[in-house]
Each structure stands twice: as structure tokens, then as C-alpha cells.
Amino acid sequence: MDNKQYGEYVKSREKRSPIVKNCFNAFITGGTICLAGELLAFGYESAGASAEDAPLYVLLTLILLSGVFTGIGFYDKIAKFGGGGALVPITGFANAMAASATESRTEGLVNGTAVNLYRIAGPVIVFGTSASVIYGVIYYFFGG
């Protein structure tokens, strides 16, 4: 069997991905997370938080819930159903950090959890800081 025949054989045996269903599930999952954020914001404002402070409380709540859901294994079920929709920026990032930390807890608190907590976050923090410095220099010399 040559490479072309093998490629045709593999293509005939592969399972087709349900693209429309996956897109719908991602849309529903991401939309539900965003709706929860909006409802939390309305709730915090109703409880007396200012319009400026409510988004901060929403972020903290979503990060906390994402970490807790990751720890108990519920976020994996959400991600399995919603795919990319579960990667709404703040919850997906919190999930990535919590998951890498919980996978390494058997190695100890410092060498396992704390070190691996920043395995995902470290590059993001470094890139974000570097990009903001570069942007600041460009803005200083060429901006208003």
C-alpha cells in the first residue's frame, strides 16, 4: 500500500465532525457564561455596588467560580459540551491556571502547585507586560 492509497483508506474511515452542532454548542456555552456575567453585574449594582465597581466584582466572581468548577471537575464537562465557547477569556484563563495547579498538587504545595500555577500564566504575563511597554514607547514617540 503506497502513501496515496493509505491516505484514501484513512479518509474513508475517519469520522466526520458535526461542525454545525459544535458551533451551536460553543455559541450556547459562551453566551451562557456572558449572560451569567451580565446577570451578576446587575445583581451587584442592585446590591449597591457602583457601575464602576460591579464589573470588578463580576470578574472576581467568574474567576472564583471557574477555579472551583475546575477543582471539582465540573468545568471539564462544560468544556466538553461547549468546546471553544468555554474559553471565554477570563473563565478559560482561570480554568487553565487552576487545572495546571491541581494536576501537580501531589508534588507538594510549593514545588507542585505554586510552580505549575504559573506554567500557563507566566508566558501570558510576560507577553502582556512586554507588549504594554512596547506600546507605551510607540505611543510616547508617535502618539498624542
Classify the beta-strand content into a percent band: under 5%
What about the largest sheet? none
Uncertain spans: none
Question: What overall geometry do the principal axes of the alpha carbons give?
Answer: extended
Mean pLDDT: 87
Question: What this model shows, in words?
Answer:
By secondary structure, the chain is mostly helical. It has a domain at about 20-85. The protein has helices spanning about 5-15, 20-45, 55-70, 75-80, 90-105, 110-140. Helix 2 packs across helix 3 and helix 3 (about 55-70) packs parallel to helix 5 (about 90-105). It is extended. The mean pLDDT is about 85.
Topology (elements, then pairings):
Blueprint: H1 3-13, H2 19-46, H3 54-71, H4 74-82, H5 89-103, H6 109-142
Summarize the structure.
The protein is mainly alpha-helical and 144 residues long. The protein contains six helices and no strands.
Which properties best describe this structure?
144 residues, mainly alpha, 6 helices, 80% helix
